[in-house]
Amino acid sequence: MMIKKSSILFAAALTAFVFMSSCEDGKKKEEQMRIETERVEMEAAENAKIELEAEKAKEAKIKEEARANSVAGQAMTNENLTTLAGALQAADLSTMLSEPGEYTVFAPSNQAFEKLSQKKRDELMLPENKEMLSEVLTYHVVPGVINSEKLAAAIKGANGSYTFKTVTGEELTASMSGDQFVIKDGSGKKAQVILGNVPASNGIIYIIDTVLMAKK
């Protein structure tokens, strides 16, 4: 009987040991699974963060390239448009012409500004005349993109004299002199396009030899 009882106790102890070992193994496996799950989740979150930062950097680069190739950006890097670039900054228009949009800009060259009297140039650049300068500059900006083919077709379709509005609501008139575009302002003064169809990220540029003025 003693041997039988001992066997039973041994078997019970062995069962308990196996059960406890099994529980311990189960807990270890659960802990390992938890750790592995956390590791995978952390890696996924880190990869998502890296991808998001890369995407933001890519978008920032695209925006920077667009600004550099914008109307304002090209004015700042074109040695023939340095006066215009300074005027855009003085009139707080650089941002407008560097942001996404669709503009056709008749950009006066440095020589165009030199045709104005020194008194007029000084007057326009005075801080108190910023609004006046802004009106002069925006008179050169037309909403929408009009490339040379469209402009030539519009002039032809209007019997040689195509009138259109700038962003100020004032009018300009385009015509042809031989194979060159001529832009007439509200005062009757004419500017010749010396370089046209210059693409920008937010429109198109025509460099002209005269500063245009709206009719007073």
TrEMBL record:
PROSITE patterns named in the record: FAS1, PROKAR_LIPOPROTEIN
SMART domains, per database record: FAS1
Alphabetical keyword list: Coiled coil, Signal
Keyword Cell wall biogenesis/degradation: no
InterPro entries per record: Adhesion/Biosynth-related, FAS1_dom_sf, FAS1_domain
PANTHER family documented for this protein: FI19380P1, PERIOSTIN-RELATED
Cross-referenced Gene3D superfamilies: FAS1 domain
Coiled coil: 28-69
Signal peptide: 1-21
Database matches in Pfam families: Fasciclin
Name the UniProt record assigns to this protein: Fasciclin domain-containing protein
Record flagged with keyword Coiled coil: yes
Residues of the FAS1 domain: 68-212
